[in-house]
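Annotated sample (chain length 182).
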Amino acid sequence: MTPVTMSTTPRIAPRDTPMARGQWQAIVIYDSGSPAGDVAALERRHLDAGLSGLGYHFVIGNGQGMEDGQVAVGFRWERQLPGAHANASMCAPWPLRAHETPLSANDLNRKSVAICLVGNGERRAFTDQQTRQLLNLVRALQAELGIGAHGVFFGQELAPSAGGLGESGQLQPGTFRAQLLP
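Output written by the structure step:
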């Protein structure tokens, strides 16, 4: 499926099937770990790793392979399919609801929307346009799916040894969550 570019008002309604609102309980934000890339390159990497295509639901470009701030909608979102982004060592750092256990890796793949920022946050800050589009997209998903800020995670929070998204800069989990819907 051809990626779709979003404006500042993100299109989050899937094109191929009705939105499965009850399925989605969290949002997980990753980086690609590479300075440049696009959906095709990420999909090749995921296919080479044995996945059935792009593991993320959305990809946001940095001007190096995709337009800066371009938001591509992946086939998993269009078809409301589970992601393929959390590995076996990952789990949510806290429960999403009282009296529940934190989401396991399997649950994260089945119940969370995965967003990937092209770039490597440990080496270079994400662009202003990327972070603006990320915030717009996450807020739109929150509003549509009823996901609170406590249900938005960064990949490194799920597996702290994994790194990613940078140790400094504008994408600190607490600072980012403070800008989200409650």
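Annotation: The radius of gyration is 15 Å.
Annotation: Residues 23-172 form a domain with the Lysozyme-like fold (CATH 3.40.80.10).
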